[in-house]
Amino acid sequence: MKVIIIGLGNFGAALAKKMSKLGHEIIGVDNDMQKVESLKEKLSYTVYMDATDELAISKLPLNNTDIVIVSIGENEGANIMATAIFKNKNVKRLISRSISSLHENVLQAIGVSEIIRPESESAERWTKKLNVKGVVDSFELNKDYSIIEVLTPAELVGKTFDEVQFKKQHNILVMTIIKNKEEASFLGQYKIVPQVQGFPSSSTVIQSKDVLVIYGANDDIYRFLKKFKMGNI
């Protein structure tokens, strides 16, 4: 993927480096030359630019970009202005960062449906969201290891854990399986209730729509997902 990240503060820089490491073409943009210089060897391109300047933004390769992420965090006004400009440019996919609930309301009013909340969502978590198809949720234990919930790859449906050999073949551990069951409430309305199945045995058969709860090193998790064509890597 080709991604433009506007704002190279702590969150933006971390996300840019993680996405670049996965092989994506990342253009990092900031109006702080020191931040731009510090990342020029780690990203495809870094650009010193004021993202609230519409004329300057027009010089970016927007037509060839898959995702624009506005991660400006220290200035709500600049974030909103930059987001509005990119929205008006009709970029393919626009994601913006919110700093407060009011800020989030303004972004939604602009028409932004994908909003980053760094206070509760890490760069690693968003890296998974941008790269993994079928990701349900993820939890970062530290910078190297995660627990991720992901829909079962089609190629594994009908196989047992003994046949798949998650640990031996992929160096990951499936801690449990979650099955979504439809249950009726006392009012007669139906809702989806997740049911944890416990630790799977070697004879457990993986079924369609199972959610696998995977633990492992981030590199091993991405390798597993790439093998089954569940990522944009």
From TrEMBL:
Residue ranges of domain RCK N-terminal in the record: 1-116
GO annotation, biological process: potassium ion transport
Highest taxon of source: Bacteria
InterPro entries: NAD(P)-bd_dom_sf, RCK_C_sf, RCK_N, Trk_Ktr_HKT_K-transport
Pfam families on file: TrkA_N
Protein name (database record): Trk system potassium uptake protein TrkA
